[in-house]
Amino acid sequence: QVQLVESGGGLVQPGGSLRLSCAASGFTFSSALMQWYRQAPGKERELVAFISSGGGTTNYADFVKGRFTISRDNLKNTVYLQMNSLKPEDTAVYYCYAPGYRVWGQGTQVTVSS
């Protein structure tokens, strides 16, 4: 069974940091491009970042460039999203996605508020 499970969300103050994790199972993770998306209340889901199967290529949405870092550990079948300098507008449910398998995780809530 192809599965993605996110963790690491929570409540953080503006300027703070969080690291999200997404554990994959049921497919060859080391061959899969991985993505992080987010969806804020009342808004469409948007792409935040992606990383190539080997980790050598990454790309970011303009609204997180310089603040977020996507990485992966193919031995642990896990992809990460390090989020620094968080802003209230980063508040959303964050999802990981494996486009090659069309599978989404259940999402993890990130709330940035004082």
Could you explain how this protein is built, in words?
Helices cover 0% and strands 50% of the residues. By secondary structure, the chain is mostly beta strands. Strands 2, 4, 5, 6, 9, 10 and 11 form a seven-stranded mixed β-sheet that branches. A four-stranded antiparallel β-sheet has the order 1-3-8-7, with no helix packed on it. The radius of gyration is 13 Å and the shape is globular. The model has no long low-confidence stretch (mean pLDDT 97).
Can you tag this structure with a few keywords?
114 residues, mainly beta, seven-stranded mixed sheet, four-stranded antiparallel sheet, 0% helix, 50% strand, globular
Which helices and strands, and how do they pair?
Blueprint: E1 3-7, E2 10-12, E3 18-25, E4 34-39, E5 46-51, E6 58-60, E7 68-73, E8 78-83, E9 92-98, E10 103-104, E11 108-112
Parallel strand pairs: 2-11
Antiparallel strand pairs: 1-3, 3-8, 4-5, 4-9, 5-6, 7-8, 9-10, 9-11
Q: Roughly what is the average pLDDT, rounded to an integer?
A: 97
One letter per element, helices H and strands E, the order comes to EEEEEEEEEEE
Radius of gyration: 13 Å
- Please count the beta strands (DSSP E, at least 2 residues each): 11
List low-confidence stretches.
none
The structural class is mainly beta
Measured between the Cα atoms of the first and last residue, the distance is 40 Å
Give the fraction of residues assigned to helices. Answer: under 10%
Helical stretch tally = 0
Q: Strand percentage, roughly?
A: over 45%
3D shape? globular
Main sheet record: 7 strands, mixed
